Amino acid sequence: MSTEVPALPGLLSSRDVAATAASIARAQEPDGAVPWTPGAHTDAWNHVEAAMALLVGGEVDAAHRAYDWCLATQRADGSWPMKLVAGVVDDASGETNMSAYLAVGVWHHWLVRRDEPFVRRTWDAVRRGLDFAVSLQLPFGGIAWSQDPAGAVNAEALVAGSSSIFHALRAGLALAGLMGSAQPEWELAAGRLGHALRHHRGEFLDKSTFSMDWYYPVLGGAVRGAPAQALLAGRWDDFVVPGLGIRCVDTNPWVTGAETCELALALDVVGDRERALALVADMQHLRGEDGGYWTGYVFADEKIWPAEHTTYTSAAVVLAVDALSTTTPGSDIFRGSSLPHDFPEIGLECGCADALVRT
Known about the structure:
The protein has 359 residues and is an alpha+beta fold.
């Protein structure tokens, strides 16, 4: 396997990628947690994304310590606390998207390393995390976004979070096949969830001012082909700032590196490599001298804000570069050619005809 990043426009060199991965590793805490910034909180979703980037960037020991943290901190119901600060729970709520995402990280690890003992060691945590998420599926097919420490469910679903859960269910089903452990309830949940993301986005909590709400159905794999291209075209001018990246919120003059790289990944999913490469190139003004990345830039004031390097931004850069350069076997994790995609849309409770539909 080559570890040399091809010299394509807008992409980093192998040395640059390694430096960015090293910047994530420097933020890692002794117990393996990867917080947003040193001393800040850790959440399981961004932590797993960081572990994936660590693996791509050659920080293998740090990546494995990150996955060990996942196993050590998962709760009996399959969830993780929403926020931990230096190992102390700051918000004990369970968030479905965070709990599901370990499946994506473990499948990514399998693609890169082909390490079956690692998969077997993490499989139970993957299974319990996805079971927790699926247990909070709402009648229309979306996934409730959280459950408070007393067990009360926030019965609202987020487009971005549910789209990421759809991706995680696909990864979980791929792992289930590898483990020889059929999970028909995940297939049913994925069919209902994919249907909701394609046909009932109005039933989700309205977060349409956020760019993540726009591109995540494509990034997670629920919307593909011509509908995906149309979805991305629909709000391009609302969010994309040529030469700088994309806005986090459509009303604010603030471009953010993580969202820019995620949109690049979504463009790669639909085969639009030219614009994906351009976006990764555009956001390089956020790169710091040590290989880390500033979170964002307020272009109206010509100021970096906030004045901190975030591990999740660096992770998004590494994964976007890997996808566009196809440097590692894990570069396919968002394109998803190794993942199941078409799920029967049965057991619908959304009011649509209870019939098999494939998109």
